[in-house]
Amino acid sequence: SVQINPPRTSWPVLFLCSQTLFCLFFCTPSCCCTSCPEQCQCTNYSGATAVLCSASNLEEIPTDIPKDTMFLKLDANKITAVPNSTFRHLAHLQEIDLSKNAIEKIDSAAFKGVADGLRLLDLSGNHIQRIPKEALVNLNAMIRLSNNPWHCECTLQEVLWEVKLDPDSVNEITCQTSVQEEYAGKPLLHILDSGINFCNMHQKTTDVAMFVTMFSWFTLVISYVVYYVRHNQEDTKKHLEYLKSLPSTRVPKETIIKPSPSI
């Protein structure tokens, strides 16, 4: 009798099939369908993708964050800057946590593309001294700016007027330096509540600078005119003295031959 053996299936094929089935039944959509940045963890909470990169020793914001990310944790890293359009491809972002980094610079279009849906932006605990007003004014998110070495001036005041600050952290926005030295080290909110307006100071400083500049130009023009007149006077005087020093070319009267009368 002839014995028919079932066809053999190679181990690699079996392994691939089992891995696929495991992913279909047990993995979250984020781990199966999208890639996750190195040194980060991607999870899924009730259909919302969260990318967790906390304390991952990152020096830059990853560029390969999944497009469906809604919650992005980048806190406790070594990130120093937020360049323009960093999150432009992340239209579903609702929360960005950039706290406890070493951020010093935020470009004016750093959060371009996430303005509509963003609900929370945490920039607390960084090294930020100044921030462009354009970077934050179009955001609808609750913003945390506490525990940064702020330089208190008109631009920062305008930012506070136009953004929605987290009420629990607003008292921790302190002026490390200021356009007026007496306000250094004081909470910015207390300074503004006392009626101080940095923008008025800025306007006065600008007016004084413009006046000084105009006065300098006016003085320069007057000096040039005076120099020009004096220089011309000296040249004219020298020219006259030179003409006087020339020998006389007048002809004596007796040498003049009178024409004979016509006949």
From TrEMBL:
Q: How does it sit in the membrane?
A: Single-pass membrane protein
Signal peptide positions are 1-33
Instruction: Give the LRRNT domain ranges.
Output: 35-71
Does Membrane show up as a keyword for this record?
A: yes
**What cellular component terms from Gene Ontology apply here?**
plasma membrane
Keyword Magnesium belongs to the record = no
Which Gene3D superfamilies does the record match to this protein? Ribonuclease Inhibitor (3.80.10.10)
Q: What is its main location?
A: membrane
**Keywords recorded for this protein, A-Z:** Leucine-rich repeat, Membrane, Repeat, Signal, Transmembrane, Transmembrane helix
The protein's name: Leucine-rich repeat-containing protein 3
Record lineage: Eukaryota, Metazoa, Chordata, Craniata, Vertebrata
